[in-house]
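Sequence, structure tokens quoted for completeness.
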Amino acid sequence: MKKRVLVTHQLPGERIRELSAHCEMTIWMDPGLLTAQGLREELPGCHGLVCLLTDRVDADLIAAMPDLEFVSSMSVGVDHVDVPALTARGIPLGHTPGVLVNTTADTAFALMLAAARRVVEADHFIRMGNWTKENAWAPDFFTGKDVSGATLGIVGLGEIGQAVARRASGFGMKVLAWNRSVREVPGVESVSLEALLQRSDFVSVHLALSDSTRGLMDARRIAMMKPGAVLVNTARGGIVDESALAQALASGRLAAAALDVFESEPVAMDNPLLALPNVVVAPHIGSATTQTRASMADIAIDNAIAALTGEPMPHCVNPEVYSD
């Protein structure tokens, strides 16, 4: 008798067709995302779960699912999953590292350029009918910040941080970096976090969200940033104190911010950051290209198929579950 697997969303890619050969597969087909209550109702009796970063797999849910044998998430980060609770049950958790490195680095750099050159603000200016013959041009008209030759500080020098550094080199930027464990990367100067914040014209965040990084960019550290600097975050929203950031932007101490992620997603419309013209925002689209999303789905399915066939997941967050 085939094992049952719940897939919480229709996935792109080619490998999803192969999953059904290894299990009795149920795919959530209704419009919109599967709710927390829906997940709790659909998952009983399932041996496997293929989920998204929007699916909260907490300790209570895991405890309520005695048949659960594996979880495969179509994401790099797994802060939506209680990893210790899975590990305690000997349940492997798969994720999709590596595949979105360049795509997310492209997004970070695009957001940085947009914030520096006030692209979104300028776009709105034209669309609202504000560009007239009377104000067609002036020496200070929509002036922004130079990216070429500026100093970029990268907070978190993993694969994505290094990919951003490579892009920065093409713009002639001086690149500083801080990482929790020292990494030597050609063309990148390793410095303390405090030195990075004080010296950088642009600061780009590339850390996983964990207990040690939550709130890392708090009011104290934001106050350390160079006056007129720009903050870019394409990592996780919980790393940055949004209230402190909004205050620094509203006061003019920071020039701009560009955010693809928020502490609570979808972001609330009363979030003070959304009221500021010097903030560029995006709805967590760092990996959102057709090719990358299909590749992520294929890796998630590969992890699931491995689990179903008794093999270790090729990309496992908690490989200790395979220890004797």
